[in-house]
Amino acid sequence: MNNIDEKKINLVVIFGRTNVGKSTLFNTLSEKQSALVSDIEGTTRDSNTEFIEWRKSSFKLIDTGGIMKVDFLKNKKIKEKDIDSQVQKQARDYLNRADLILFLVDSKTGILPDDKLISEQLKKSEKYKDKIILVANKADSPKIRMETAEFHKLGLGKPFPISATTGSGTGDLLDLVVKKLKIKGKKTDPENNAGKIKEKKKDAIQVSIIGKPNVGKSSLVNALLGENKIIVSEVAHTTREPQDSLIKYKDHYINLIDTAGISKKGKKQARHTKKRETLEKFSINKSLHTLRKADIALLVLDIDKKITQQESKLVEEIIKSKTSLIIIANKWDLIEEKNRKYYIREINIALPFCTWAPIHFSSALSGKHTKKILDIILDINKERKTEISPNALHKFLKNIIKKHTPQKAKGTKYPYIYELKQVEKDPPVFSVRIGAKDTLLESYLRFIENRLREKFGFFGTPITVYVERNKAIHGKHDLEKLQNNEENNS
User: Fold this and answer.
1) For the segment 317-335, what is each residue's pLDDT rounded down to a tens digit?
2) Torsion, CA 53, CA 59, CA 63, CA 64, rounded to 10
3) What is the DSSP letter of 411?
């Protein structure tokens, strides 16, 4: 297992104090709404990343958390484990690796003390001072653009006025970024590695890591990556935005998506008008949105605690999204009597609608038993794409009908099943064709689903089985056509 090698791709970092519009600029330049935007200080925690292609050049763009303490720019070890300290450390680590730094200031507020302090620290360091483009954001009118001249006082060169909200000046800013990279002698990714990685991420197995707050989702991602990419803390909703991490494992690309914790409390609080509670609501909605695009969900449980109704609701969302499922019984190291059969039974009782999902016991914090999860992901990805031939399904149908006669939902007539057909794969969908006036009991569809799993597998994958009725017969021609079809099927 290895992370994708991105060393050949130039790194451009958006940097500045809080609330200058870094995430808005990131969204505009990447042409996505992936970064969460609000006027709450410290909204961005984990740095957002995206690959940008512009005028036959490409680079990796980083949106960092806002700088709150200028001391973090100094060369000293950061020992504190609180969220703010980790955010600052991550931002500084990206600055140290940057080929270019977009130092963002706010044209409307003008120069603030923090802007001065940050610029002084940047100028003092040999690592930073020749890499900076001073960007004056929120220059939404000609008058404000004229006033950006005051930023000359920072001693970082001519300020480049833009409006991240409207997009004004951002195309010219990208031109300048590419030009600066070339002047600095940086290869602007002539082999288009950034574009290749974007394609790989798009075609990769999409895996959403989901669960309640503090169950160990971010720790699990870090364990699978083999590095501390995602900020981890005991504070609920530390992760606010989905974080993508592309890895290669056994010649397969897997895109791991860490999400914000989903809690019933968070949803209730979000009904109020307080800004921070609204921010939680946006985080939760983004988390749920990842399920609709995911191939597989890892539902992370704290096995040391009882399963709640909220986790049951999450399973409903996963099944509704037709997403495959792996249940991760995390924090297994905290359990003294490791009776797997007991815990599997308890999970299946609490989550009865997904007994087909594999349950894997692991300890994300220590990394114990986490690598096996990647093998399970590959197995399930294969099962999702299983396609059963019409002939095999015809034999299967005849066999199960002998064992259990189709049951009517209403009326006096027992239904006749003409055909069982697979109409889709990835995930698998089957249609059961019955007579125009026949009905079929819902439990019989579940019986068919269970027998399909017994016979053909579909490990960890939801199956859809629906009823399709024959068209009503209105004359001799329709009757002959139906008879011919039945003979062909036989």
Assistant:
1) 999 999 999 999 999 999 9
2) 180
3) S
